[in-house]
Amino acid sequence: MEKNIGKKQIQMTNKGERSMQKTPANEHRQRWSSRLIFIFAAVSSAIGLGNIWRFPYMTYKYGGGAFLIPYLIAIFVLGIPLLMMELAVGQRMQKGAIDAFKKVNKRFGGIGFIAIFAGFAIVVYYAVVIGWAAVYLIKSFAIKLPWAADSESYFFEDVLHLTKGVNDLGNLSWPLFFVLLLVWVVIYFAVWKGTKSIGRVVLIMTPLPVLLLLTLFVRGITLPGSLSGILYYIKPDFSILFHSDIWLAAISQVFFSLSIASGIMIAYGSYNAKKGDITKNAFITALCDTTFSLLAGLVVFSVLGYMAFVQNVDIGSVAQSGPSLAFVVFPKALSLMPLAPLFSVLFFLMLFAVGITSAFSLVEAVNTIFVDEQKRCTIKKISFYVCSSAFLLGIFFTSGAGLYLLDIFDHFVTHYSLVLAGILEAIAVGWVYGAEKMRAYINSVSDWRVGKWWCYMIKYVAPLTLALLAAAQFIDEIKEAYGGYPHWAIALGWLMVIIPIVVGIVLAVKGKRRQN
Ligand code: PHE
User: Fold this and answer.
1) Fewest CB within a 10 Å sphere: which of 154, 397, 450, 453?
2) Ligand 1: which of 251, 358, 410, 415 to mutate, most ligand atoms within 8 Å of CB?
3) Which pTM value belongs to this model?
4) To test the ligand 1 pocket, which listed residue (49, 86, 114) has its Cβ within 8 A of the most ligand atoms?
5) At what angle do helices 207-221 and 226-234 cross, to 10 degrees?
6) pLDDT single digits (tens) 207-245
7) Shortest CA distance to 245 belongs to which of 468, 457, 464, 409?
């Protein structure tokens, strides 16, 4: 019975593909101007705040060096196979996330929608964090860094105007508002001509942060005390490996970092010709991204080691996990260095640059679905609507409760929506489209061939491990509300997960009707 359903669906898919080949619209699809530009775009999407801001504090929070074990396992077992899958889906179907899954089965548009919704929710708060980096960058052009005396009150009070809790929204911070506007203007002009403008931007914005990181790395490891910082960072606490939350944290970090399950790689893949390479591109992207994260972690902790050395305190008392690591502890450490303003400029410029290239990739994923659907609306117009609505929603995060809201959104979207999108995508490709069929396609276009292992990962390992871990996390969550936030705030977080699921179900029902 099941087999028959599968067959029927594959036939439908084939029909869909055939009709797609006929549509002249695909001949006019935007293209990356070269393979290098595509790789730059994919790598610069992957390398983002996730590598510099999120990865070091996640590693530190979840057992230091021990975190690298689930992280690296997750990269190879889930990250790379799913990255290959997404690039393949986009490239094979020549469509963004929603239409690409509709081509797998008419009822599956919702899978793409869940991914796109998650990506859009992320970019709304992601741009706010880039805004913080911009504030620090601007303020670094000073003889004496303004946070040198008290970096904690500088960040929480002067920059964020943080209230006592999420119940108190406080006032809008006008400087953050304007910086956020600036960030969105930059993002807009990066995406407004689609692959053409993105191609130009990534040509500079991909190598730039790498150079900055290498400079900071050399500076970091040559500072006195850096070794103790690095040792503290990588010293493993293996006992933590027995907790399910560390595995889910590692997986969600892999998803976040590789830009998967948010529609990006499907959209980016769809701008490649159908014959474009997949396997090697996926490996290059994952390798660059992971190396960048590991190096960024070393930079952050070598500088913290230096701070402990200068202040003659234990490194454990200066290191601090959480989103404020890059904006409280690290800036403080920078302020103690010789030529502090210079290195501060380099660090925040790097943060800004990696943030922007990732933010516009998230926007491009959303733009693509409209470009696919709306033949009459220009990319410029679509970009304008997408960017301005994300900007308007982002204003909430510039309020005094912004940091709390950001923490809640980040938790629910990355731990549930991204994971759910990953599960459904893998099921759709593995079981309905057919893992073997997709592998045959990947191998027909790629320099490196993938073995049968890929099919097992997509069909069994990815959906099962993701579902198990999300369930374990869910049970923990019921026992204890995340972060001790009030009910309404937690409900808001769940809403971000539930809304796209409901839309997905509606799309499935509607798709079924249309099919009949
Ligand atoms: N990969 C980017 C980062 O690590 C941006 C991103 C985050 C993309 C989350 C998709 C989902 O910062």
Assistant:
1) 453
2) 358
3) 0.91
4) 49
5) 110
6) 999 999 999 999 999 999 999 989 988 888 888 888 877
7) 468
